[in-house]
Amino acid sequence: MALVASLGIVLAGAVSGCSMDLLKPGAFDMFKQPAASSTVTASSGPALPGTGNPSRAAKAAPTPVVGTQTDETPPPPPAPVASDEPPEPSTPALDRVVASVDGDPITMREVKDFAAQRGQPIETDDFASSDAAKVVVKELIGEKLLEQEVKKYDDRVDDAQIDKYIQQLRQDKHMSDVEFRAQLQASGISYDDLRKRARLDIEKAMMIEQEVRAKIDVPDADIKAYYDAHKGDFTITKERLKLAQILIALPPNPTAAQVSAAQKKADMIRARAAKGDDFGDLARVYSDDESKSNGGELGWFAPSDVMDQILVAVKSLKPGEISAPIRTSHGIHIVKLEEHEVPGVQPLNDVKTLIRAQLVDQQSGAQLQKWVDSDLVKQHYVETMY
């Protein structure tokens, strides 16, 4: 069963270049582990569920009132006063506190809701005799510990990172800004809510990167072994080109003056790109193509799907390079070759980073569990009450 359902190995776009779909249920479930994953256990440390923290408990105990002893017999307690009022109902089971993290209570209702969301409903109210309930309580405690920890990253995320994250999300969905906001509205999510959720997602990603992924060492020998055992995964069967463009549009039958003005504008843009200006930003400002809202991103193409004039210009480029301005019937194009897949087995050096990330992903669950068990549990006051 997953220790943490809110953290994951797919990092936010502002952190690692990837993004997550915030518009779907579970979009912020960043870390999901197989059912066999270990959970926070009573052997993890002195502040584990069910053990409490003796030193903290002692501090919290009420101070006894010290008085003068006498031999007088204490008076009998007053007789109960009759009342027509019905007796106060006992606390409903679902509102009963079953655990706490740093003094913040966890109720039975929270635990049952948490379990139901993960497809493992708890039917009993007797948590003391239910192993399944105890497991879920410990998982929820793990969630609470990580929620406390992620607060340390509140001041590490700025608006520019959130903007980049949302922009990447929109590009992944191939939507204009207007289309993207319309889908948000249809999904019942305000743009402000999206930004808040994106900020939290980036904070979680930063925490996982620093506390979990960065502490995993993957030897080169392991990368080579994985490559040798999975060469089929790194074999390309069809040539493909990933392109982005900036288009300076021209009308049908343009005048010489119109062509000259478009060419001058294209040369200026190409020069800025060559000096290091971000291609996507230039596209959003200057391109006349619909792809401008996606930073000029066009996606993947087979060579046969690319216009001849453009194909000739980009075939000689290396990934990341930008073409000189290209004249077609649509106008003047400035094209960036983002990636070029050529049939054959990809060299190890080309996929080394990808393999390393995959192996880190495989070990992240155990590393996360180790971090929670060996560090977080000992840094917080955790107790169970069933």
Summed up:
This protein is an alpha+beta fold and 386 residues long.
Secondary-structure map:
Layout: H1 13-16, H2 54-60, E1 97-101, E2 104-107, H3 108-117, H4 131-150, H5 159-172, H6 177-186, H7 191-211, H8 220-229, E3 235-236, E4 240-249, H9 256-274, H10 279-286, E5 297-301, H11 308-315, E6 326-328, E7 331-341, E8 344-345, H12 348-379, E9 382-384
Antiparallel strand pairs: 1-2, 1-9, 3-8, 4-5, 4-7, 6-7
Task: Describe what you observe in this structure.
There is one protein chain. The chain has 386 residues and is of the alpha+beta class. It has two domains: 1-57 and 93-231 and 347-386, Triger factor/SurA peptide-binding fold, CATH 1.10.4030.10; 238-342, Chitinase A, domain 3, CATH 3.10.50. The chain is built from twelve helices and nine strands. Strands 5-4-7-6 form a four-stranded antiparallel beta sheet, sandwiched between helices. It has a three-stranded antiparallel beta sheet with strand order 2-1-9. It has a two-stranded antiparallel ribbon with strand order 3-8. The longest helix has 32 residues, at 348-379. Mean pLDDT is 79; it is low at 1-75.
Number of strands: 9
Write the element-wise H/E pattern from the N-terminal end onward. Answer: HHEEHHHHHHEEHHEHEEEHE
pLDDT below 50 for ≥5 consecutive residues: which ranges?
1-75
Number of helices: 12
Separation of termini?
A: 21 Å
Instruction: Please name the fourth-level CATH homologous superfamily of the largest domain.
Output: Porin chaperone SurA, peptide-binding domain
Provide the gyration radius in Å: 30 Å
Q: Assign the structural class, choosing from mainly alpha, mainly beta, alpha/beta, alpha+beta, or little secondary structure.
A: alpha+beta
Coarse morphology: elongated
Strand content: 5-15%
Which bin fits the share of residues in helices? 40-55%
Q: For the report, how would you describe the main beta sheet?
A: 4 strands, antiparallel
- The third-level CATH topology of the largest domain is Triger factor/SurA peptide-binding fold
- Return the average pLDDT rounded to an integer: 79
- Which class of the largest domain in CATH terms? Mainly Alpha
Biggest β-sheet: strands ordered side by side in the sheet: 5-4-7-6
When the domains are counted, the total is: 2
CATH architecture of the largest domain: Orthogonal Bundle
